[in-house]
């Protein structure tokens, strides 16, 4: 069976593809940038996996679909909710370009993961966009199967990370009115089970041109979800709902209290007053599986986090950040029109230990010089609408191209060569990079800033005195192997 997966680098895509390969399927994964796809995680399945590039916002970037041959099923997993106010327009363009692109291909089925849209309710931009995409896909040349989910709970999912941030950080919460809205959370494991089940060749005809609601075994309010997480963690939390937080204030509340971006917070909040519970449950009989309870889902997610085995994280999608894909493609830092701080010293620890120290920067481990100052800079970034430091990192020791790392994005990672380049996703009057190169007996650190106008140059002048304090100490710590922090 040949399967095509769009959005292969996304949260769902990176969870679904290994399961498809385990079943023996041949998988064609479409990504905007091959350099961001963790191909090293799929070495055992190399003959079964083909990765191709294409941006469905730009039709001309897509390869000729005629060359793909017959495809049994295509998973449509493209979402742009974190891209800002115009995300409905972007999602519509992507869906139209997909249906146009796939027309020449003999295609047996399209599977779309959407959101529950209650009948008779005035839909938010988020849910209306999902419904619009479903209508566009249904008018394509292949039968459509739509799975509509409420809240997806799993390690690294946006909803799980928001709940975790709120409960772990706030002993007392004054929560908006929407926390009393009902939803039907479902474990990511069960979502993947349904996605696989609807393309099963033996029962495939049952799912063509059908829409199914998928949910877990419990109907909960968002407040009950916060309380349930607290019980699993053994935390005592006090939740005080208040009636006066507007949608905009609620979005700011989520943005400042959690690791979510403001565009995503705004899009989420616009839908949280709408009850998203399953209106029908036919799929339970058609794709039988053990549905995890909400508390079981939380326990499973926490165990995966504790073992550093999180396969995908919502904020590692480029749509969730501000990095331009050309920076990943063009791995050379600009040399003209820049301001920079370059330093190089002899390493005093084994080279591999120094490389490991560089590879552990950020996240829970922190930064080797004035860690408090980095967090202060992250708070300042949050105040002006940036990503801040709360994104952390996917894994405390491993880095891959495209990973989010605090307020940076990894754009080049070559551990054998000892070279790492980070691109700043902070709100800046210009563009910034941080580069490390570990040689046989020395380490080089380079902070590069390409200012935008006079204000950009003033910004560099104001921050440069802090560079003179932070960067020499940081480089010195790394040259020594930064042992005391790596062992945390």
Describe the 3D structure.
With 488 residues, this protein is of the alpha/beta class. The chain has 15 helices and 19 strands. Helix 2 (87-101) links the parallel strand 4 (73-76) and strand 5. It is 34% helix and 19% strand. Mean pLDDT is 83; it is low at 318-331 and 484-488. Helix 2 packs parallel to helix 3, helix 4 (158-169) crosses helix 6 (222-233) and helix 7 crosses helix 8. A seven-stranded parallel β-sheet has the order 3-2-1-4-5-6-11, with helices on both faces. Strands 14-19-18-17-16-15 form a six-stranded antiparallel β-sheet.
Which oligomeric state applies? Answer: single chain
Number of alpha- plus pi-helical segments: 15
Distance between the termini: 46 Å
* SS content category: alpha/beta
**Main beta sheet strand tally, sense and closure:** 7 strands, parallel
Order of strands in the sheet with most strands: 3-2-1-4-5-6-11
> In which range does the helix fraction lie?
25-40%
Shape: globular
The count of strands amounts to 19
Overall pLDDT, averaged?
83
Strand content: 15-25%
| Model regions low in confidence, pLDDT < 50 over at least 5 residues | 318-331, 484-488
Determine Rg (CA atoms, Å): 23 Å
């Amino acid at each position: 069976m040949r399967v095509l997966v769009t959005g292969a680098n996304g949260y769902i895509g990176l969870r679904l593809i290994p399961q498809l390969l385990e079943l023996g399927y041949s998988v064609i994964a479409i990504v905007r940038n091959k350099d961001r796809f963790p191909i090293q995680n799929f070495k055992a399945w190399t003959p079964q996996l083909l990765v191709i590039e294409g941006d469905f916002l730009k039709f001309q970037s897509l390869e000729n679909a005629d060359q793909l041959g017959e495809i049994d099923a295509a998973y449509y997993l493209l979402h742009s909710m974190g891209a800002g106010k115009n995300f409905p327009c972007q999602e519509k363009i992507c869906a139209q370009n997909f249906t146009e692109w796939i027309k020449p291909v003999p295609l047996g089925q399209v599977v779309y993961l959407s959101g529950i849209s209650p009948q008779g309710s005035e839909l938010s931009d988020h849910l209306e966009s999902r419904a619009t995409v479903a209508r566009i896909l249904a008018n394509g040349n292949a039968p459509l199967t739509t799975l509509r989910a409420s809240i997806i709970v799993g390690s690294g999912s946006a909803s799980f990370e928001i709940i975790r941030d709120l409960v772990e950080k706030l002993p007392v919460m004054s929560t908006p009115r929407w926390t009393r809205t009902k939803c039907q959370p479902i474990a990511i494991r069960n979502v993947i089970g349904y996605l696989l089940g609807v393309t099963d060749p033996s029962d495939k005809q049952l799912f063509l041109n059908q829409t199914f609601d998928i949910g877990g075994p419990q109907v909960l309010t968002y407040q009950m979800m916060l309380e349930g997480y607290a019980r699993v963690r053994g935390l005592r939390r006090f939740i005080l709902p208040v009636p006066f937080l507007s949608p905009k204030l609620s979005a700011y509340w989520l943005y400042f209290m959690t690791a979510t971006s403001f565009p995503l917070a705004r899009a989420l909040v616009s839908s949280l007053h709408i009850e998203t519970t399953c209106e029908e449950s036919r799929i339970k009989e058609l794709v039988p599986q053990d549905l995890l309870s909400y508390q079981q889902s939380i326990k499973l997610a926490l165990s995966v986090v504790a073992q550093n085995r999180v396969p995908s994280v919502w904020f590692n999608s480029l749509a969730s950040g501000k990095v331009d894909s050309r920076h990943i493609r063009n791995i050379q830092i600009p040399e003209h029109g820049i301001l920079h701080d370059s330093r190089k010293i002899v390493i005093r620890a084994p080279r591999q230990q120094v490389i490991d120290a560089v590879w552990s920067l950020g996240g829970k481990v922190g930064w080797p010089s004035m860690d408090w100052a980095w967090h202060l800079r992250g708070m300042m970034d949050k105040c002006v609408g940036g990503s801040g430091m709360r994104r952390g990192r996917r894994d405390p020791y491993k880095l891959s191209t495209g990973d989010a790392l605090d307020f940076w994005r990894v754009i080049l990672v070559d551990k054998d060569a000892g070279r790492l380049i980070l691109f700043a996703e902070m709100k800046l009057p210009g563009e910034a990079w941080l580069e490390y190169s570990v040689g046989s007996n020395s380490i080089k650190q380079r902070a590069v800033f390409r200012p935008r106008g006079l204000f950009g140059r003033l910004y560099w002048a104001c921050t440069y005195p802090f560079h003179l304090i932070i960067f020499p100490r940081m480089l010195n710590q790394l040259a020594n192997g930064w042992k005391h922090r790596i062992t945390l």
